[in-house]
Amino acid sequence: xxxxxxxxxxxxxxxxxxxxxxxxxxxxxxxxxxxxxxxxxxxxxxxxxxxxxxxxxxxxxxxxxxxxxxxxxxxxxxxxxxxxxxxxxxxxxxxxxxxxxxxxxxxxxxxxxxxxxxxxxxxxxxxxxxxxxxxxxxxxxxxxxxxxxxxxxxxxxxxxxxxxxxxxxxxxxxxxxxxxxxxxxxxxxxxxxxxxxxxxxxxxxxxxxxxxxxxxxxxxxxxxxxxxxxxxxxxxxxxxxxxxxxxxxxxxxxxxxxxxxxxxxxxxxxxxxxxxxxxxxxxxxxxxxxxxxxxxxxxxxxxxxxxxxxxxxxxxxxxxxxxxxxxxxxxxxxxxxxxxxxxxxxxxxxxxxxxxxxxxxxxxxxxxxxxxxxxxxxxxxxxxxxxxxxxxxxxxxxxxxxxxxxxxxxxxxxxxxxxxxxxxxxxxxxxxxxxxxxxxxxxxxxx
Length: 447
Known about the structure:
Outer membrane efflux proteins (OEP), alpha+beta, single chain, about 450 residues, two-stranded parallel ribbon
């Protein structure tokens, strides 16, 4: 029986550990990755929470002008009632003498209910406007976060694809070079070429192997970076559906270079406007503090007294009371303190206007640069593809010449290095087209 219990326990433990070790698998196109990140990225989640917090803050501010009801219950046990002296002649005593008397009872109980209503307060009206502006700031911050996440996903997704393509090309180059190296060694053994030719190829092959291992490590890092951006646990599996060449071709859009730029449509400009509005409201708030405030309250309650604690007994007497009150607070003189705060708010408003103008000019400059970078990336894509074709032909010719003894290993190595560089340049230009378009579309506020 004990053995059976031990076996069952071990099986349960093993099943729990297996469930913990179970990995999830994800497969995304670039579009799917962007959609997933906007919903699951850690910064995106907190941005959504900021919006919810702003909504709650808006309601909190609104309730300040709504009726407020407060209840109060108080109990007092006078262990030793305070005594006072009064002339004794009041009670028939001798003139000049004083008698000790105690006013009150040993036990007091009171309860009240107060209804208060703010009738007018300039600060409250400004507060309502500020709460709306705060919500807009949070919503625009969320949009900016989404745009930044989209751009980061595109960049990291492209880096993984770049690493994938680099690995494939390096493996292909390695296979070809190993064949050439093997053939060259055989030719050297037959005494037809010098040992230097073999050594030169050996150096190139060692460099290819080193680059291949480095790119594999870089792919692991890039893949984990993408998981982090997507909000996926690093232990989970991630694979990508898109290919770098197809994705780069899909991102070639000459019409995008003709798009009109409306600086007021950018998120950064809208955030700058939010800041300007908040400074305007701050100025209104300081001015509103010179206005009177008016409030009203209705109070209703019961009191009860006794030398014994009999408040829960039937027949205990309770005395009710009620009152209505109106309060008016009028600021009269603050030793110019309010004026000083108002002047500070005016200065802050002028600063925010200057900052908005600066933001506008910076955004226009960023657009021109992003447009130029994207146009250059398209030109480079065409140029690098043409250069790659030329480098492949040159390397192929040198391969033939080398095998026929018409070219040295040094000449072959130079042609190979030129081909490898052209391959990496072409891969990088494809990635640049994708990234530069993402930057341009971010400024144009395109989804």
